[in-house]
Amino acid sequence: MLKIVEIENLTVQYPDVKALDDVSFEVNQGDFLGIIGPNGAGKSTLFDVMLGLNTKYKGTIKFFGEDIKKSKEYLKEIGYVPQKPIFEKNFPVTVIDVVRMGLRNETDENKIDEVLQQLWIHELRNRRIGDLSEGQQQRVFIAKALITNPKILILDEPVTGIDQQNIDLFYSILRELNSKRKITIIWSSHDLDAVNQLANHVACLNRTLFFHGESEKFFSNDELIKQYSEASMQEHMHHH
Ligand SMILES: Nc1ncnc2c1ncn2[C@@H]1O[C@H](COP(=O)(O)OP(=O)(O)OP(=O)(O)O)[C@@H](O)[C@H]1O
């Protein structure tokens, strides 16, 4: 099986807190990995490091077998959807403008249309981005991330503001991207049920990696889930 990502002994120390402590895991081609963890578990820190946004780490990260410190080429294969895309409410850009921003080369209108259809936002293409609901905005940012045909999609899932209907649509889109388009997905989520249903692998992060493996092995083990919930809860209380 082709290894897409190899993370070895990753440690990130901020001035006041060790956000990641000796984390190691691999992602194979075609995997759908759900990363779960309480607030402050280090999920965003992990993504920052993987995307080359934070280079102050110990350990090794390889994409497609190559150390990310050696080359930034791997970034071309990644579509990234941040937790909260930052833009002004009155930012005068439309849905199609935002998706077009994702293009690296010349504009390929056909490709834009295809992605808009795929994400169920074709009807919204001329609407101003700030006027859309959070669930609709999320789909626009996924479309933007997909416009370059990435091999990997990395999503930092927003937790609030999206209604159930949009969540269901979002999940069915992810499932289709993984199963039909064979995109490797790395997705951080607070929704354990959704991770159980969608992801074939799970990584439970809480500064250290509590568990990494097939989702079935985690979700069929009540004792493991209990231990993990307790550990997460303690960490949470400790920080608030
Ligand atoms: N740039 C930074 N400088 C210093 N500390 C940071 C920085 N970014 C994050 N931290 C700290 O590192 C820890 C991990 O934060 P991180 O944002 O990675 O967690 P998370 O799992 O993404 O949380 P959430 O689910 O709330 O988004 C937290 O204690 C946070 O306060």
UniProtKB/TrEMBL annotation:
Keyword hit for Isomerase: no
PROSITE patterns reported for this sequence: ABC_TRANSPORTER_2
Organism of provenance: Nitrosopumilus zosterae
Family, per entry: Belongs to the ABC transporter superfamily.
GO molecular function terms listed in the Swiss-Prot or TrEMBL record: ATP binding; ATP hydrolysis activity
Pfam families: ABC_tran
UniProt-listed InterPro entries: AAA+_ATPase, ABC_transporter-like_ATP-bd, Metal_Ion_Import_ABC, P-loop_NTPase
Name of the protein this chain belongs to: Zinc ABC transporter ATP-binding protein
Cross-referenced Gene3D superfamilies: P-loop containing nucleotide triphosphate hydrolases
Entry keyword set: ATP-binding, Nucleotide-binding, Transport
Domain ABC transporter: 5-232
